[in-house]
Amino acid sequence: MLTRLSLSGFKSFADKAVLEFPRGVSVIVGPNGSGKSNVVDAFRWLLGERDAAHLRGAKIEDLVFAGTSLRSRVGLAQASLVLDNSDNAWPLQFPEIQIKRQVSRDGESHYFINENEVRLRDVQDFFAKSRIGNRGLTLVGQGNSDSFVRVSNLERRLMMEEVLGFKDYRNKKNESEARLKTTKENLERINSLLREMEPRLRILRKQTSEWEKRDELLKELRILENQFFGYELRTIERGAKEVELEIDVLKAALEKEWHRVHLHEKTLRGIEDERPEVHRNMSDLLKAKEILMRKQALIERELGRLEARIELMGKDQEIKAEDAHVLIHESRRALETALNESTMHGIQRVIKTILLEIEHALYKEPRVDSKGILNAKKKYEETIAGLEAELEAIQEKEKEYNALLINFNTRVREAVREAENARLFHTRLLDKERTVLIEKARWGYKHKEICGHLAQAGRNIDEIDTTIMHEPLSSALFQRMHALRNELARIGAVEESTIKEANELESKYMDLAREAHDLHDASGDLSVLIEDLTKKLSRDFVKKMNAVSVAFDRYCNHMFGGGKARLLMDEGEENAIAGIRAEVDLPRKKTQGLESLSGGERSLVSLAALFSMIAVNPPPFLILDEVDAALDEKNARRFAGVLRDLSLKTQFVVVTHNRSTMEAAHVLYGVTMDKDGTSRILSLRLE
Ligand code: ATP
């Protein structure tokens, strides 16, 4: 319920003016130009009007008291409306609700609900929910009493919606549609952004996936390489180490052997230096032997002579020629044998035997006169014995020299053999050293080769752990290692900046996609809401409109004393708001269009429509500014009667000059223009 209106600095109300509104009809009267319509303007302004023209001003600051010749102007216009909410009829949980609006001369506006500053929008919403609007029916301005007839079908529909409580739905629908439009635009914008991003993203995704694949391949390759190079390097290191050890051992052995070679050569030289002086002694010995031989020849000659003498001595003794022949022959053979004898002793023995044979042959018994011969023989025998002894001594010496030479030669041979053996062993060691050095070089070459492979693979030797045992790569794994290298080479290098770009674009894309998804959901929700609101605005509205149509017929009949009237909905295009048209058959008149009605008839039809809407769905209050102006006495009375009836359902604030209307008032206010050119309120409470 409307409780109170306070004005201050508003238009002609320079001073504070307060109007209390009881239930029923409050009528405001006063002379022309006293400020009655300014009160209606205050209502309109409080209900959320923004257009200065609708408030009868050029600009919103024109609402501020401009001053008169006797009153200076003010800086702030203010109006407030107090609503009783003890029956919770208003859409706020307060027992009393105050709506206040201010505007300063510099155009600054403020809105308050219960002294809390709010937005204009909040005020508009509050009244829309309360089925109070400024569209022309809850607040009918001066000269607008026939607006229901005058306006277009669509405007009529909107007017009806306002009074019948659909304005909130309409606002919500408009708002939802606007939001849906923006949402769809945003969605389209985002979708087109997403579409724009997609080709680049596809490329980047491919690169990223290749990069990820590359990373995995690289990891696998590293493991295989670590095993491969680890095994190879460890093998090389171990091989090289073994060779080094072998070289050390060989070096030591070579040195030792070289020493041994020297030692043996020195020993040989020493032995050679000890070579016995056998040759000179031997030649002395041979000379002595020769002398002895010559002496032997001399004896043989002497022996020959002796034989000749023996022959002379034996003339008287007949020697058979045959025996002599045998004797000579045997002597000769014995002497030849003796000459072949190597020893002097042998020669002597043979000569002795021959002499005995000769003696035996010649003298079966030795003759006494052969004494001299025998002496000579004895002498020869002694000489031969001497020669034999000498020859024996020489032979002993010869034996001794031979033994010395044999011993020397044996030693030399032994020393040479030893030296040669040592040299051979040394040479063999040298050969072995050469082989091992080649082996060392081979390990070095292998190491270099592996280092080359490492460099080719872009690996550093420090990365390879050779402290652990590695299995050699199986041929399948070796092939895998090569295949991985080929695959990586095919993929090629992926720039880090590309991956960064890919991540950034991906996250931007995901954000936008999420946003698009949210917008899509939101547009779905809005569509559902719009559909719901559309249903309310069509189905529910049609129900109410039909009820209003029935009441319209009744009120027209009442106001015109007969006739027929009804409201019909246009065949609206889909999604467009279907307009409302009114058909009126006045009594005693042919069916005419609304356009041909007289001014008073127009007002009556409009008021009948207003009353029918109030009857179906009474708003909390109505402000009517001289809507009865065009009515004649009889119709004014009818109007006042209906007003009085409907005031049981709704509160009326009516500005009028009409006596009948004044008579319907429960409270009467008089507005006067003071001498200083400002408006004043006089309360003339009737009840
Ligand atoms: P009618 O019966 O002729 O309709 P009314 O009582 O409705 O008259 P209003 O139109 O409410 O009269 O008042 C108009 C008066 O208010 C004018 O005299 C006008 O000068 C005055 N007025 C309007 N705006 C201002 C303002 N900002 N400052 C001072 N006076 C103003």
UniProtKB/TrEMBL annotation:
<feature type="coiled-coil region">
    <location>
        <begin position="495"/>
        <end position="522"/>
    </location>
</feature>
<feature type="domain" description="RecF/RecN/SMC N-terminal">
    <location>
        <begin position="1"/>
        <end position="679"/>
    </location>
</feature>
<feature type="coiled-coil region">
    <location>
        <begin position="166"/>
        <end position="193"/>
    </location>
</feature>
<keyword id="KW-0175">Coiled coil</keyword>
<dbReference type="InterPro" id="IPR027417">
    <property type="entry name" value="P-loop_NTPase"/>
</dbReference>
<dbReference type="InterPro" id="IPR003395">
    <property type="entry name" value="RecF/RecN/SMC_N"/>
</dbReference>
<protein>
    <recommendedName>
        <fullName>RecF/RecN/SMC N-terminal domain-containing protein</fullName>
    </recommendedName>
</protein>
<dbReference type="Pfam" id="PF02463">
    <property type="entry name" value="SMC_N"/>
</dbReference>
<feature type="coiled-coil region">
    <location>
        <begin position="370"/>
        <end position="407"/>
    </location>
</feature>
